Amino acid sequence: MRASHILIKHEGSRRKASWRDPDGVAISATTRDDAADLARALRDQIAAGELQFDAAARDNSDCNSAKRGGDLGPFEKGKMQKPFEKAVIALKVGDMSDVVDTESGVHIILRTG
After folding, report:
1. What is the mean pLDDT of residues 99-105?
2. Is 5 annotated in the active site?
3. Catalytic residue of the set 18, 61, 97, 107
4. Where is the composition biased (Basic and acidic residues) (predicted)?
5. Which residues is 26 bridged to in the sheet?
6. CA distance linking residue 45 with residue 6, whole number of Å
7. Which of 4, 5, 10, 97 is catalytic?
């Protein structure tokens, strides 16, 4: 499997720091609902063709994969958190998920392989 994603961390995320917010100040002040709203807004812009997925990931994702446009590279079953993996398996190559919750935060996932 292969996927790209946009991760938006929030106050309930297991690790409240990221490359964008090393001290976790903004993350700790972000509710899950606010994170999901941002993820949905990005998804809507991508789906409408107003924004490219990789550009949205580079500018908004709290994952280090943002530097690669959200690309996580290939991975095998059992390597990702269960809700993330389940969402990837349910997608066809080229499809984008709705908001997916994991212990890391909320994600928008693009299946790429």
Report:
1. 98
2. yes
3. 107
4. 68-78
5. none
6. 13
7. 5
Q: Of 3.40.50.740, 1.20.1560.10, 3.10.50.40, 3.40.50.300, which CATH number belongs to 2-111?
A: 3.10.50.40
- pLDDT level of residue 49 (50, 70, 90 thresholds): very high
Token pair in block for residue 64: 């280090």
Catalytic residue, from 13, 18, 61, 63: name it.
63
Average pLDDT for 102-113: 98
Per-residue pLDDT averaged across 55-62, rounded? 98
The catalytic residue among 4, 52, 81, 97 is 81
Instruction: Answer yes or no: 10 catalytic.
Output: no
pTM across the whole model: 0.95
**Active-site residue flag, 45:** no
- For residue 36, give both structure tokens: 């999901």
Tell me if 8 sits within 8 A of 99, measured CB to CB.
no
Whole-angstrom distance, CA of residue 75 vs CA of residue 69: 17
Using an 8 Å Cβ cutoff, are 99 and 10 in contact? no
